[in-house]
Amino acid sequence: MRSFTLLLETLEYASAARDSVNALKRYMNQVDDEDRIHAIALLTGRKPRRIIPAARILSWSMDLIDIPDWLFEECSQVTGELPEVLSLLIPRRESMPERRLSEWMNMIYALDRQSEEEQYAWFMRHIPEADPAGRLFMLRLISGRASLKVSLPVVVTALSELSGLDEKILAKRLSQEWTPYTLTYAELVRPEERSDRVSLPYPFHPVIVDTHAFQSTNEERWLLEWKWDGLRAQIVYREGQVHIWSETGVLLSNKFPELTSMASAWPEGTVLDGEILAYSEGIPLSLTVLQARIKKKYVTAKIQAETPVVFNAFDLPEHKGQPLHAHTLEERRTLLETLVRETAQPALLLSTLVPFTSAKDLDKMLALSRMERARGVLMKKAGSGYADPEAHWIFRKAGTLSVHAVLLYAQKGTDELFSHYTLGVWNGKQLVTVAKAEAELGTEELLEIDDFIRRNTLEKFGPVRTVRPELVFEISVESIHESRRHKSGIVLHTVRIIAWKKDKKAREADTLVSLKRNIM
Amino acid sequence: MLEFTDKGIYCSRGNFYIDPWRKVDYAVITHAHSDHAYPGSRSYLSHEQSAEVLRLRLGKHIQLQTLAYDQPLFIGGVKISLHPAGHIIGSAQVRVEYKEEVWVVSGDYKTEEDGISTAFEAVPCHAFITESTFGLPIYDWQPQHIIFQQMNDWWKANKEDGKATFIGGYSLGKAQHILHNIDHRIGPVYVHQSIADTNRALAADGAVLPAYRTLTPETSRRELQDAFVLCPPALFNSSWIKNIEAYETGYCSGWMSLRNFRKRMNVNRGFVLSDHADWKGLNAAVRATGAERVFVTHGYAETLARSLREDGLDAEVVQTLYGGAGDDDHPALPGDTGEEQL
Questions:
Q1: CA–CA separation, A185 vs A387, rounded Å?
Q2: Which residues face B154 on adjacent strands?
Q3: Nearest C-alpha in B relative to A413
Q4: Is A74 close to B307, i.e. CB distance below 8 A?
Q5: pLDDT over 50 (residue B338)
Q6: Under CATH, which number does the domain A207-397 receive?
Q7: How confident is the model at residue B47, as a pLDDT?
Q8: Which of B138, B267, B336 sits opposite A75 (nearest CB)?
Q9: Strand A231-238 to strand A241-246: parallel, antiparallel, or no bridges (unpaired)?
Q10: Which own/partner pairs from B16-20 qualify as long-range (CB within 8 Å, at least 24 positions apart)?
C-alpha cells in the first residue's frame, strides 16, 4: 500500500500531466494485476460508499489514542481535517507486514456487510498497521471523504502506453459499468475486438488559435462559422449504439441521455462533429453551466430540465457507414444539411455558415461575437477534407473586454519586484476582488509601482501585501462568467494587466454591476 | 542558578550567557544556527566542531574558545561542560554545575542518531531547559532509514525519467544530514555554493563528509540530469532553476508531516525528516535527565509544559527568542503561522 499512497502524493503534486502518467506507469509496473485494477478503480472514481460515519471513527480512534482531551484539541487545531489528525495520532504498530492495496480494499469492501462490532474489531486491529499516509487514505475512504480521482486522460494514456491498446478503446472500456470484482486487469487490457471499433470516433479535425491579422489569398475559399462557448464532441451511431466522445477522449454518453436517444434515430453509420451547448430559450449558455452539469454523478430528469442541451453540428465525418474523409467540407456540409433537415430533431442544430468574401466579413463577425454570445469565429477551407492535417480550422477569438480595476494586493515576482497584482472593482462603496495576474508593464513603471507598494502597505500576510487602494489598472478580459466560488459572484477568464492608468482615480474604476452586464 | 533575561539565559555567578540574542561579554553557544549564535559578543565558547562554522557566520576574528564534549571548564567557580545534542555537527547541550546543583540547557536536539552528528546523550540534572519545536503528539517521526529509502527511490525514479533531483535544505545541518545518508551510488551529488562553504568549515574542524561536487554558475544543466542537488529552498523560485528542462523538487522537514505545510511548500515531494526531537523524543529526553524542574522554550512550549505538569513534573514556560529563521524545521521558512513563535 505504501507504493499506492506514494502514487497519490505524486499525483497530487505533479506539475504536468506527463509526470502523472509516468508515476502511474511506474506504480503499475511494481504491482500485480489485482492491485492494478483496484488502483484504476479508485483513480477513476470507483470507491466504496461511506461505510463508517465520522463520529464513530472519531470515537473508535479515541480508544486507540491515549492522550487527554485538551491535548487532542490542540492537535486538531494544527492539522486540517479529522482523518488527518487521527492518522497522525493513532499509535503505530511497528514492524507490521506491508499489505497490498487489494488486501486492504478487500477488507474495506467486506466491512460494508459486517456488523458494527465486527467493524470495530477490524478497525482496532488493522488501522494501526498502516503508516500515517496509509491510515489517512483508509480513514478518508471508509468515512466517504476520499477524493482520489485523477483526470481520465492520464489513466487512459498510462494504460495505453503499458498495453499498446488504442486510447479510445481504453476510454470506452473504462467508462462502462464495472468494479474491481467484475473486471480483471487482464480483461481491461484484452486485445482489441471488433466491437471496440464500432464505438470509436474519428481523430478530431484540429483547430488552431490565430491572433495575427488575416492574410487573404485568392486560391482558397473560406467559410466562417461562430465558435460557441460549448464542448466539442463527436456523436458516433453505429450498430444501434451511441457513443459521445469529447475531444480529450472522455466518453460522455451517459452524461447526455437526451442526445444519446436522439442519435438512435439517425441512419445507421452516422458520425457527427459539433459542439454540445447548454441552451435555453434559443440562447446558448456558457461552458461553465455545461461543465457543472457534467460534474453531477447522476443525470436526473430534473438536471436535464434545468440545463437543457443541444448539439450544434458542424461536420459529418461518416455518413451511412461511409467515411467521408476524402469529401470536401462543402460536400460533407450538403449531406449534413439534408440529415439535419430530414431528422428534424429540436436538439440537433446546424451551425450557421457565412461565406467569406473579404476581410470585412471576418471583422464584422468578430465585432458581433460578444453580442451573439459566441467566443469568436472559426475559419474553414471550403475544399478541405476532414482528415487533412494541413487544413486545420482557424479559431479567431472575439475582441477582449477592457476593465478598469484598483490594485488591492501585491506579491513579488521572480525578480524581487512587486509585479503580481490582485485587483478589485466597486461593489457599492466596497472594493471586491475580481482578478489576479502578473502585470505586463515596462520595468520603469514596475519600479515606480513597486516603490508605491512599499510605501503604502497596509498589512502583510506572508508574501502578500495589502496596498492602499489608489492605483488603477486597465485589464483585458476574454470573458466573464458567473461563479459561486468567488466572493464577487463572477470569474474573469484570461486576465491580462496591460496598462497603469495614472490619470484615473480609484473611484473611477469599474463597478461589479457593469462587469455583470458582460456575463456570458 | 540560571536566569532568563532579556538578553538570553544568564548565569550570574559565572557572569556568562548561553545563546544570548544581544551582545554580551561572554557567550556560550549551543550550536551555530543564527537564532542561537548572534554576532557581536566579546568572547564565545563553543564545541570544537562548531568553531570554523561560527567564524564563517559571525566573523573571522571573533574571540572563541572551544571544548571537546565532556571537557570541563571552570568560570567563577561554575563548572561548564558540553554534551552531544545530536541536532547538527558540533551541537551541544550546556551543563552548568555549582555546589552539586546541575542545570542543563539543551539548545536544539534530536534523540535519533543521524549518523553524522555525535549522538544525543541524556545528561542527569536538577533542572533541564528544553526546546519544544515539535511538542505535539502528532509529530511522530518514522526511523530515518525509511525516509532515506524513500528519498533514494525518488531520486532513482527521477533519474529514470531524465530529471534532475533538487532537494531544499538549510546549509548547516539538514544539508550534511542528507549528504551523509543519501545513496551516492545512484548518481552524482551536487551541493549549492553556500552548502559547500559550510561543509569546508565543518571539515576544517574534523567532520568527515562524503565526496560531492559543487554547483557553480558554470555547471551545465545537462550535467545535472541524473544528479541529486542539495540547495537552499530559495533556489526553487529562481530563474536559474526554471531554465532546467526537467527537474523535481523536494523538501525535508518535520513540518512535512502536516498537509497544510506540505501544500504551502509547493514542491513535488515532502520528506518528514527533522533535526529536532519529535513528541516522544522530547518526553523521553526530559525524563532521562531525571530533572525535577523543567523549563520549556521555543515551540509548543505551553503544550509540552502542561503535559509534563500533568505527569507530575515541575514544568514551566520560559520566553526566549529561539526558533526564528535559520533552521528549516522552524516555521519561519515554510510560511510562518505565528503561533509557534515566541
A1: 34
A2: none
A3: B237
A4: no
A5: no
A6: 3.30.470.30
A7: 97
A8: B138
A9: antiparallel
A10: B16/B45, B16/B75, B16/B80, B17/B41, B18/B94, B18/B96, B18/B105, B19/B105, B19/B107, B19/B320, B19/B322
Inter-chain touch A22–B161, beta carbons under 8 Å: yes
Fold adopted by B3-139+276-317: Metallo-beta-lactamase; Chain A (3.60.15)
User: Does this chain's domain A207-397 share its CATH topology with A401-516?
Assistant: no
Strand partners, B4: B9
Nearest CA of chain A to the CA of B335: how many Å?
Answer: 6
User: Which residue of chain B comes nearest to A132, CA vs CA?
Assistant: B257
Residue A337 has pLDDT above 90, yes or no: yes
- Enumerate the H helices of A116-268 as residue ranges: 116-126, 132-142, 152-163, 167-174, 185-188, 194-198, 257-263
Domain at B144-271: CATH architecture: 3-Layer(aba) Sandwich (3.40)
Q: How far off is chain A from B145, nearest CA to CA, in Å? A: 14
Rounded to an integer, the average pLDDT of B234-247 is 84
ipTM of the complex: 0.89
Q: Which residue of chain B comes nearest to A76, CA vs CA?
A: B138
pTM value is 0.76
Query: Which pLDDT score, from 0 to 100, does residue A218 have?
Result: 63
Residue in chain A nearest B235 by alpha carbon: A414
Q: With bands split at pLDDT 50, 70 and 90, how would you rate the model's confidence at B340?
A: very low
CATH number of A401-516: 2.40.50.140
Q: How many CB pairs under 8 A join A and B?
A: 60
Chain A residue numbers touching B306 (CB-CB < 8 A): 70
Domain-by-domain residue ranges, chain A? 2-142, 207-397, 401-516
CATH 3.60.15.10 in chain B: give the residue spans.
Answer: 3-139+276-317
Q: How far off is chain B from A327, nearest CA to CA, in Å?
A: 43
Interface contact flag, A71 B300, Cβ < 8 Å: no
Contact criterion met (CB < 8 Å) for A67 and B137: yes
- The residues, any chain, with a CB within 8 Å of residue A457's CB and separated by 6 or more, are A465, A466, A467, A468
